């Protein structure tokens, strides 16, 4: 049996997790605003393609919704890597988490313009995710050896 000691610096990891939940909430609020502006009723996730091609507000809604949905799709992986990587490298993991969060904000801002290619501006966030993959692997290695 292995005893895990959590360093006090793990607090940075927890704070980063909290910040990420605020970011996801912020993106959801942006979707709500775009939904209202485009007059897309619930429960519809997206405007129809034919509508969004004719109406810029509906296109913006679709792009804003997609940015949020993409973030939610990867969110469980992010949290898993953040909290497991933080066991062995809390400061590096927290910093990598902040890079991912900032990347997602820039990604969503670019995508929400209605020009999908502008989402690429947030690609730097993947550097944070790759770092978290490394720190999680380090935690696994340390526990097994």
Automatic annotation (TrEMBL):
Q: Which domain of life is it from?
A: Eukaryota
- According to the UniProt entry, what is the EC number of this protein? 4.4.1.20
> An example Gene Ontology cellular component term from the record?
nuclear envelope
Record SUPFAM superfamilies: MAPEG domain-like
Keyword set for this entry? Lipid metabolism, Lipoprotein, Lyase, Membrane, Mitochondrion, Mitochondrion outer membrane, Oxidoreductase, Palmitate, Transferase, Transmembrane, Transmembrane helix
What is its subcellular localisation? Mitochondrion outer membrane
Q: Which InterPro entries match?
A: MAPEG, MAPEG-like_dom_sf, Membr-assoc_MAPEG
Membrane association type: Multi-pass membrane protein
Q: Indicate yes or no for the key word Metal-binding.
A: no
Q: Which pathway is this protein assigned to?
A: Lipid metabolism; arachidonate metabolism; Lipid metabolism; leukotriene C4 biosynthesis
**Molecular functions per Gene Ontology:** glutathione peroxidase activity; glutathione transferase activity; leukotriene-C4 synthase activity
Q: What class of enzyme is it?
A: lyase
Q: Name one GO biological process term.
A: lipid metabolic process
Query: Would you indicate the residue range of the signal peptide?
Result: none
List, alphabetically, the Pfam families matched. Answer: MAPEG
Residue stretches spanning the membrane: 12-29, 78-103, 123-144
User: Catalysed reaction(s)?
Assistant: 15-deoxy-Delta(12,14)-prostaglandin J2 + glutathione = 15-deoxy-Delta(12,14)-prostaglandin J2-S-(R)-glutathione; leukotriene C4 = leukotriene A4 + glutathione
Q: What is this protein's name?
A: Glutathione S-transferase 3, mitochondrial
Which species is this UniProt entry from? Mortierella isabellina
Phylogenetic lineage = Eukaryota, Fungi, Fungi incertae sedis, Mucoromycota, Mucoromycotina
């Amino acid at each position: 049996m292995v005893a895990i000691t959590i360093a006090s610096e793990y607090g940075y990891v927890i704070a980063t997790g909290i910040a990420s939940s605020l970011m996801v909430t912020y993106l959801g609020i942006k979707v709500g605003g775009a939904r209202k502006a485009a007059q897309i009723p619930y429960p519809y996730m997206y405007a129809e393609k034919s509508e969004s091609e004719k109406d810029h507000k509906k296109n913006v809604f679709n792009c804003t919704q997609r940015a949020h949905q993409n973030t939610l799709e990867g969110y469980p992986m992010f949290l898993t890597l953040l909290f497991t990587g933080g066991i062995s490298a809390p400061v590096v993991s927290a910093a990598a988490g902040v890079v991912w969060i900032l990347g997602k904000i820039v990604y969503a801002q670019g995508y929400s313009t209605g020009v999908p290619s502008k989402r690429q501006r947030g690609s730097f966030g993947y550097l944070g995710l790759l770092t978290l993959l490394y720190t999680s692997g380090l935690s696994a290695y340390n526990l097994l050896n």
